[in-house]
Amino acid sequence: MTNDEFLQFQGQMKAPTPGQSFANDPENPAPYEQAPRFTNIHEATYYLWTEITDPEIYLPIMETLQDGTPILDIVQTMLFGEFQRGAWNPDLMLMLVEPLSYMFIALAERLDIDVVIYNGELEDEDADEELLGVKFEESRIEEMKKAAKAGKVPEGALSNQMKEELKTLPKLPSLMDRQTEEVPEEMQEPAPEQSLMAQPEGL
Fold first, then answer.
1. pTM of this prediction?
2. Mean pLDDT for the stretch of residues 18-43
């Protein structure tokens, strides 16, 4: 999940052009114009949990959080992307903002990652945020910030099953490990040669 993808989704998160639905092909409706796959918040929440803890998604997202990407940026990107694919309707999408945010806070806390909740947080700007086209209450964002600072999400934010699965997730490679992996082998400095005057090993 890259910054380009965030910008692409954010550019799409605008109200549709008036009358646009009348121009769409009724024989080939878009996924979000059909019945959603999820109508139950608990089922939708666990679906998101399985998605963000998938090995191919989990570590890249944690690295993105470690690099300072705000949680709410990732949240709205994921929720809107799933909405476009027909996972849920707009009402359920908005209801999932807090559950998904607390999932990320819990995952980050396990890896000792200091997270940023929203853009402008570090500059102490107004905490009112517009998410998915709707104003998100400052008090709710403040609760997220407190949870992140305390390293503890509210009771009930994670189900018992999620808590158990959380214990089995892999740790994030250290920064030094990541730097070593990123440097091609041929560009890494060779190990120093042993001096001919050095004492032989085993003596």
1. 0.70
2. 71
